[in-house]
Amino acid sequence: MTGKAIYKLPNAQYATRIEGEVVTISRLKDITEQQGYLVAPFDSLQHPLLLISAGTVEEVPLVKPTNKSIDIKTEREVSEYTKTFKQFHNAVVHKDLHKVVLSRTIMIEMVKRDNEEMFWRACKKYPQQMVTMFDTLESGLWLVITPEILVKAEGRECATMALAGTMPANNNEKWSKKNKQEQQIVREYIRNKIEDISERIEEQGPYSVTAGSIQHLRSDYRFCIRKDVKLGALLDRLHPTPAVCGLPKDEAFQFINKYEKYDRRYYSGFSGPLNINGKSIMYVTLRCAEIEKENITLYAGGGIMPESEMESEELETRLKMQTIKAII
Questions:
Q1: Most CB within 10 Å of its CB: which of 71, 239, 269, 305?
Q2: Cβ neighbourhood burial of 59 (10 Å; 0-12, 13-18, 19+)
Q3: What is the Cβ-side half-sphere exposure of residue 123, based on CA atoms within 13 angstroms?
Q4: Which of 256, 294, 287 is nearest to 271 (CA)?
Q5: Please, where are the H alpha helices in 174-261?
Q6: Angle at the Cα of 57 (from 52 to 59), degrees rounded to 5?
Q7: Residue 271's closest CA among 89, 107, 105, 149?
């Protein structure tokens, strides 16, 4: 069975299309020298880790989107965010967890649409984001507009980021204590995961970055992994980060799977080109939509901490979903 992906890296003047046989990989640690487009779920025990092999790889010029209409019939909440929030908040207030990420879905029923048109609209509207659309029988069709690098690797030279904390892009207020703490948790997690496998680490930040209608706190890491460390082992260490899961990671992961009340599938996993032109660039699957025959399901989430308030967290997820809504 074959699959396909098309993606545009941040600020790129072209998109890249990859098509080829879909291969299932048992574990992240098994990734070595394979080439293609890698698609990872949030939970690899529930959904397969997929590689769209690099049968064909071609650069394609960016297409100017048309003004074709995309008609929305209905919109409805799938998950029960307000009810689930209390359960997640109680877990961090009572110190069972330091942080846990609660996500939600909204399903939009479509009358008429053009899938690739949505991709080109996203490329035009979000030139500084990673925009990708991948399609396999196992995963289905997904559109992703994401600001968050999980890992960028060229040989042993690697980069990653700590991206957390959220407020509206036009908000000139100072970052709240809650947002600063949330970002610090991710920073500490990343440094802890890379410092014992790296020969050198450089850190920059935190600083504010804008992604669509919202802004985040971001810190950047550049590091050189040891000769005996493979990319798959690095990905396995980092995924899922506290930005999409929580801390302690194993406990937060189990809590989400038990209480979130829906299946994240490939939302909050990651994807990207693997060993294409000597580089691998994996982005976290955020600001995304699963596209089915008649429906588009939007996914978004936010970190829950003791200071979190339901109204502001609910608004944050709506702002994140607006990234996709703005191009449909």
A1: 269
A2: exposed
A3: 24
A4: 287
A5: 177-194, 231-238, 249-259
A6: 130
A7: 149
The alpha carbons of the chain give a radius of gyration, in whole angstroms, of 19
pLDDT in tens, 189-243: 999 999 999 999 999 989 998 887 788 899 999 999 999 999 999 999 999 999 8
CB within 8 Å of 249: residues ≥ 6 apart: 189, 240, 242
Under 8 Å between Cβ of 81 and 104: yes
* 256: its two tokens: 């989400």
Provide CB contacts within 8 A for 127, sequence distance 6+.
10, 11
Angle at CA 39, nearest 5°, toward 23 and 216? 170
Nearest partner of 145 among 127, 131, 125, judged by Cα:
131
User: Are the beta carbons of 155 and 278 closer than 8 angstroms?
Assistant: yes
Which tokens go with 189? Answer: 């997690």
Q: Hunting for tokens 């992906």 — which residue is that?
A: 5
Residue with tokens 């890249």: 16
Pull the structure tokens for residue 43: 């939970």
3-class secondary-structure state, position 151: strand
Q: Which two tokens stand for residue 10?
A: 């941040």
Report the alpha-carbon distance of residue 191 to residue 178 in Å, rounded.
20
What pTM, to 2 d.p., does this model score?
Answer: 0.94
Q: Which residues, in sequence order, are CB contacts of 196 under 8 Å at separation 6+?
A: none
For 71-116, what is each residue's pLDDT tens digit? 666 777 766 788 899 999 999 998 889 999 999 999 998 766 788 8
